[in-house]
């Protein structure tokens, strides 16, 4: 029931499911489609093989939602649609409605992009965003159970639905999570798909911290911003340097910031600290992924605590739990799932994956944060959303620090 003619995939009447051989978790899927009058199909996402996409995975409607088949005539002769909002084109069927009015006329080609990365689903139709939502925050509007919303991987399907619909120029970019550890990768050389934030030679691509408070920094404009940045860059050059391919900090200046802002991304970074050190990584200008020494049992004068009260005092900040926690969280978890730190003086590796406001972190190959919300530290209520994009910062906390192999892969959003 599916045929290919002149580069066009034709779903004929009576056709059912056509699915990819491979399973996909996170991706950007682009295609063109052409509908007949009242034509109906669907795009299944993260669906177990052969299952009903609408419930076992997700189904994004492909539908001529203004078609005669979906119209009722009122007593005064007017025609109205009987479709529910979650049944129109682009909607997550039964779960979340899309905006209407962006389909081209029947018989014309439409361009559509679907971004599905972790719990973020976005649909762009003919250049207009018609759906942009996060699954973890949704309750299905049809009142039915949709267990497939929790699926993290599965097949992509054209659902059939017994109507003639045509497709062409079907492409996919795979954004599945990267391996937590890069094996046999030369220092400061980005792996495929990633860009180096640090070239191993100088501070190109970095800037100083123009203001300690992110809200105040974002408010700086014009000359006030350029003057503040000039002072910050001078401080940066006095205290951050490159020594034998390692980004090195003397502990006496301020945080180091990327020149570019980043939204959703994967970020590799190798870091090393001396005993007792404290640092972190700010995402979108917001603290922070914690870096500190969980092995340091010293208190004043280097003495090891003799009793439980002494240990509580020594570790009142929680540093014994290890690095990788979102330490400034108050509502969401602020602790790492496990202590995965190497001893001071040894290199550690973070893989940081940020999608929306959720962060997953692997430290030395071990998962220490699993899609944990990063709260907005700069809002006292911790309710205001994070900015959609902002700088990444390597935190000054008065300690010597060492970094290398900083690679980033931007994720579409």
Question: TL;DR of this structure?
Answer:
With 413 residues, the chain is mostly beta strands. The chain has four helices and 26 strands.
3D structure, described in words:
The protein is mostly beta strands and 413 residues long. It has 2 domains: 2-174, Sandwich (Jelly Rolls), CATH 2.60.120; 195-411, Sandwich (Jelly Rolls). 8% of the residues lie in helices and 36% in strands. The two termini are 35 Å apart.
Q: How many helices?
A: 4
Radius of gyration: 26 Å
CATH superfamily of the largest domain: Exo-inulinase, domain 1
Q: What is the CATH fold-level name of the largest domain? A: Jelly Rolls
Number of domain units? 2
Structural class: mainly beta
Which percent range fits the helix content?
A: under 10%
Task: Give the CATH level 1 class of the largest domain.
Answer: Mainly Beta
List low-confidence stretches. none
Strand elements, count:
26
Averaged pLDDT, please?
95
């Amino acid at each position: 029931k599916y045929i290919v003619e002149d580069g066009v995939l034709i779903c004929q009447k009576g056709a059912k499911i056509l699915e990819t051989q491979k399973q996909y978790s996170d991706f950007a899927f682009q295609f063109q489609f052409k509908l007949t009058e009242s034509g109906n199909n669907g795009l299944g996402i993260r669906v177990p093989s052969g299952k009903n996409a609408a419930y076992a995975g997700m189904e994004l409607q492909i539908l001529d939602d203004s078609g005669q088949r979906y119209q009722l005539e009122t007593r005064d002769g007017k025609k109205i649609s009987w479709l529910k909002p979650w049944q129109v084109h682009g909607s997550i069927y039964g779960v979340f409605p899309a905006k209407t009015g962006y389909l081209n006329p029947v018989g014309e080609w439409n361009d559509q992009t679907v971004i599905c990365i972790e719990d973020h689903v976005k649909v762009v139709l003919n250049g207009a965003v018609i759906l942009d939502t996060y699954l973890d925050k949704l309750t299905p509007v049809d009142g039915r159970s949709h267990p497939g919303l929790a699926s993290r991987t599965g097949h992509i399907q054209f659902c059939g639905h017994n109507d003639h619909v045509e497709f062409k120029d079907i492409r996919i970019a795979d954004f599945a999570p990267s391996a937590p550890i890069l094996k046999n990768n030369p220092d400061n050389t980005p792996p495929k798909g990633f860009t180096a934030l640090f070239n191993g030679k100088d501070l190109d691509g970095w800037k100083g911290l123009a203001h300690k408070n992110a809200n105040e920094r974002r408010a700086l404009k014009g000359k006030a911003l350029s003057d503040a940045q000039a002072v910050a860059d001078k401080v940066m050059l006095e205290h951050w340097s490159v020594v034998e391919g390692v980004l090195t900090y003397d502990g006496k200046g301020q945080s180091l910031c990327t020149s570019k802002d980043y939204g959703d991304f994967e970020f590799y970074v190798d870091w090393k600290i001396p005993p007792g050190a404290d640092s972190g990584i700010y995402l979108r200008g917001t603290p922070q992924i914690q870096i500190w020494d969980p092995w340091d049992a010293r208190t004043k004068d280097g003495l090891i605590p003799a009793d439980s009260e002494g240990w509580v005092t020594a570790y009142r900040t929680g540093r014994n739990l290890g690095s990788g926690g979102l330490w400034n969280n108050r509502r969401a978890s602020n602790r790492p799932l496990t202590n995965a730190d190497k001893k001071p003086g040894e290199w550690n590796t973070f893989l940081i994956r940020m999608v929306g406001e959720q962060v997953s972190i692997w430290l030395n190959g071990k998962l220490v944060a699993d899609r944990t919300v990063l709260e907005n530290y700069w809002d006292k209520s911790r309710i205001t959303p994070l900015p959609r994009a902002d700088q990444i910062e390597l935190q000054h906390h008065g300690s010597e620090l060492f970094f290398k192999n900083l690679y980033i892969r931007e994720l579409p959003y």
